[in-house]
Amino acid sequence: MKAIELNAEYLGVSRVQLMENAGYAIAREIAARFNSREASVAIYAGLGGNGGDGFVAARHLAGLGFKVDVILAGKPSEIEDTASKTNWECIQLLGQSIATHVVYDSSVIPKLEATVTVDALLGIGVRGELRQPILQMVKTINRRPGFKLAVDVPTGIDSDSGEVLGEAVKADLTVTFHRPKMGLLKAKKHVGKLVTANVGIPPEAEVYAGPGDVSLVRKPRPLEAHKGDFGRLLVIGGSETFSGAPALAALAALRTGVDLVYVAAPRDTAYAIATMSPDLITVKLAGSHLDSRSVGVIEDLLGKATAVVMGPGLGLHRDTVSAVKQLFNLIGKRRVPLLLDADALKAFAEFKHRVNFPVVLTPHVGEYKILTGKDLPPDLCDRVEHVCRFAGELGVVIILKGHIDIISDGITTKLNLTGNPGMTVGGTGDTLSGITGALLAQGFDSFRAAVAGAFINGAAGDFVREKKGYHMVPTDVIDWISRVMEDPMGHVRVRKW
After folding, report:
1. Which of 159, 274, 311, 331 could form a disulfide with 342 if both were Cys (CB 3.0 to 4.6 A apart)?
2. Within 13 Å, how many C-alpha atoms sit on residue 252's CB side?
3. Residue 300: Cβ-neighbour burial (10 angstroms; 0-12, 13-18, 19+)
4. In this structure, what CATH number is given to the domain that contains residue 173?
């Protein structure tokens, strides 16, 4: 839900709008059940977005003639959510119709009489057992007579698991937003009747990749973090003809935040790659291209790797195809997440089968035809259906690269609109592989890694276009990866139709 809300904001639907619609939905449910001339409402509000929904509800209820009290759990200066702060400041100007009480000590919770009690303390972000003054407010709400309404999720319920975090509000009605959270279906004794309210999140927020998808693949970095905590990626690629492709994938992975990247390449190619950047660790393989002699060396490296990218610049010698098959089976036995790109995709086409470990395939249209033996239909909806079905048959995640990227795991499909015609330059597919491989190495689910990888790669290319026009090279894209990772909302939106 947090990701969907961020994507909605990226599409132009602001948090203030979503909060306004959520608060109105709460007020509407109360007004449908109670007479404003006879009923009063007490709203217990937290410092986050859930509290902001309560502030908006207070304003609408006051406008309908209800007597309203708002009890804030904390100091107004501690409200960090911008939309919540805006709505708190708004109700301060409505002193005639809304009474506000600030509580930052559980011993000073006001004793109020109200027909309806609203729990707007904590929403979907709650983790761990409740602390004061929230805990005491939950106990106060549960002791109160009358009707109790919970905003989005009853405070004290884990919205994913339904677990009661020590103590939780027991509501008569829960008004949740956009979609029911899984935990609500498992905590019916606390939820009461469940109503799902539409708050104006457009369908595109779930269909298109966006900043919310990037937020799902960002890991906090504690002070005590050590080298390797954020993954170790093995890139297998390069040949006598191509040395740049595996280097670009490795550099993109490092910029995405993986701790270590090993590039396994034929000896002369590996030496060339080592001269490109001191950031790259190269493993020199015998011969001028990947063959069965290299399999044992790479097998030893698999003990260090948390993910593998195979294919950039690999070439298609007959013994290379055989080595790819051997390595694919070894990686599968160890269940190391694997991304196949470029020539490794063409090799995989010769022995493809359903897999039982995390695999991401990144074909363009031509490579997709080699994989499937079929031309893609021209209509986008038909293409989506085709990619979804093929991904499901193989048990893989597919990123079909194109004007509009199609990402599917056979169950869920998303589209990515970032990127531009300047990215037809050779090497931007390698940067996509490096970004996605780095996210796999950090332990993220393969579908989430693929969706975020496609967005980040295309958005970085769009930043380059803004600065340099279409005169870009893949290293320009690499330079902008960190910007997108740190500020995905700053990406300039591009309309594709």
Report:
1. 311
2. 34
3. exposed
4. 3.40.50.10260
Spatial separation of the C-alpha atoms in residues 407 and 458, rounded to whole Å: 13
DSSP assignment letter at 279: T
- Say if 182 falls within a structural domain: yes
Could you tell me the two tokens for 479?
């330079």
- 215 in the same domain as 201: no
- pLDDT tens, 141-170? 999 899 999 999 999 999 988 888 889 999
Does residue 495 form part of some domain? no
Rg (CA), the chain: 27
Question: Is the domain of 182 the same as that of 222?
Answer: no
Measured CA distances, 218 to 287, 365, 438, 460, 485 (Å)? 39, 30, 12, 16, 8
Percent of residues, the chain, with pLDDT higher than 90? 84
Domain-embedded: residue 236: yes
For residue 120, give its domain range.
Answer: 2-207
Span 182-240, pLDDT tens digits: 889 888 899 999 999 999 999 999 999 999 999 999 988 888 888 888 999 999 999 98
Q: Which of residues 157, 178, 207 is at a domain's end?
A: 207
**Residue 376, in any domain of the structure:** yes
Encode burial over 452-463: b for 16+ CB neighbours within 10 A, e otherwise.
bbbbbbbbbbbb
pLDDT at res. 497: 42
d(CA 253, CA 314): 18
This prediction's pTM: 0.92
Question: Average pLDDT in the 421-448 region?
Answer: 97
CA dihedral 175, 178, 180, 184 (to 10 degrees): -40
Q: Are residues 183 and 256 in the same domain?
A: no
